[in-house]
Design brief:
By secondary structure, the chain is an all-alpha fold. The protein has a single domain, classed as NCX, central ion-binding region (A middle domain of Talin 1, Up-down Bundle). The chain is 78% helix and 1% strand. The protein has a two-stranded antiparallel ribbon with strand order 1-2. The protein is globular. It starts with a helix and ends with a helix. The relative contact order is 0.24.
Amino acid sequence: MDFVIFVIAMAVLIWGADVIIDQSEHIALKFKIPEFIIGATLIALGTSLPEMAASIAASYNGKSDIAVSNVIGSNVLNITLVLATVFLIAKKINPARDFFAKDSTWALVPVLVFVLMIIDGVISRFDATLLLLLMGAYMMFLLQDAKDIPELEDLDDSNHTFSWFKIILMLLVGFVLVIVGAHFSIESASEIARSFGISEWVIGIIMISLGTSLPELVVSVSAAFKGKIDMAIGNIIGSNMANTTVVLGAAAMVQPIKIDALANIFDISTMIVATLLLVFITANKLYTKSAGISLLIILGLFLQNTLLSI
């Protein structure tokens, strides 16, 4: 029964996120916000809502392992699964944006800051404040950089009747679905872990992170199919940035998060390696199927280690 509740709760969680993403995109198109900015901010934050809701709910209920492992697992999956899938399915990958020069640092810095913060075994409210400030700095950078990015002239939202009342109403519905889905997914996942003798860390890093990464996968794959490579990659970078700063920061604000870094060194190291690979790929513009396969190899090692630990 717990597994059925978990599946339904994750579906509600993802559905709520999809509603929020859809309404955010209408706002972006209405005001002609550049394509990359949509991917790296509105859509990235929208697709990170499941992670945020799940981690906040976990932190509130004193389940620190789920709160942290969800973020680590999502970051790893966003790069090794979502980005790899984009590389493998896209017919041509020739992004207009120089992701290495402008964005790779923003993908790496929060991960390194996270490593420094967990050395003492806890992410405190002070740490959370610093993480949220880091996301604020990233948003300021994007807004400043947006002045040099061409506007979205090729996307037409004329078929959609723009109504602030409808959009705000749908956003509220989306947030309610996300919150309810997060609560029941965390509770049912914990029960599953206990019934099978599996640690909450493993549940968070596989079941919950995979479920909460589905919006990134759907949005990025859809964007890749439409030739919106900048939006697809921007969503992945922005989502990882949001996961490590806003998601962890919000969860730690609710309650300081304890983490045993040594006990989970492999998963943390995998997140670092995956992020460094992202930087390497963008630095050398290796937007190829070979790069996608390389990322899938990292994913295979990550899953093997996790399954062996069960």
